[in-house]
Amino acid sequence: MADDLSKGHRVTLGFECPLFIHISDEPEGLTKARDGEGNRPWSAAGGCGSLATGLAEYSWIFEKLKTSTKIEVQPIFDWSEFSGGAGNLFVWEAFVSRQAKETSHIDDATAAARAFWSSIPNVEKSTMVTAERPFSLVGAALLRAGLSNDVRLLKQTCVVISA
Q1: Alpha-carbon distance 102 to 117, whole Å?
Q2: Which of 118, 97, 104 shows the shortest CA–CA distance to 46?
Q3: Helices 137-145 and 45-68 sit at what angle, rounded to 10 degrees?
Q4: Is residue 57's pLDDT more than 90?
Q5: What is residue 158's DSSP assignment?
Q6: What is the pTM of this model?
């Protein structure tokens, strides 16, 4: 990925974990499902486990990316802007659960990548989860790694593609 970015290629990167959560106005709504998540909220066992693991993993990945690329990485969450030429790193969330679960993590990742590929060119129309008042954990990780200084990332959702 660092080589591709350094050569001027644009990259999409999906993670199979919640990348943002909803900050409800009411305390009883803090752990409820994000809009479109159905009966499997981010705060259920699978969501919490993958969120914590993913947070550590993408924070590490972003730090390594910062130190190993030869150009400025410009992360973006908006597909229409990315497809229009803005940014060089499009970050998205893969939602792989229930019937879409495969026998291995590699197979889950393959299913997610296929679902993303199938959604092109209408990626944003394919997003299944939203939040009215998001807190972007992936945005915080990008800021921490020094890949962005745009604090607006903290309040942005990203595309969520269901496999």
Answers
A1: 18
A2: 97
A3: 20
A4: yes
A5: -
A6: 0.92
Identity of the amino acid at 92: W
Residues 74, 52: Cα–Cα separation, whole Å: 24
Paired residues of 13 in beta bridges: 91
CB 36 within 8 A of CB 160: yes
Asked if residue 22 has pLDDT above 90, the reply is yes
Helices (H), the chain: 2-6, 45-68, 79-83, 105-119, 123-126, 137-145
Q: Closest by alpha carbon to 113, among 34, 32, 22, 13?
A: 13
Tokens of 3: 């080589």
The tokens describing 85, both together, are 């030429």
Kindly indicate the confidence band of residue 102, based on its pLDDT and cuts at 50, 70 and 90: low
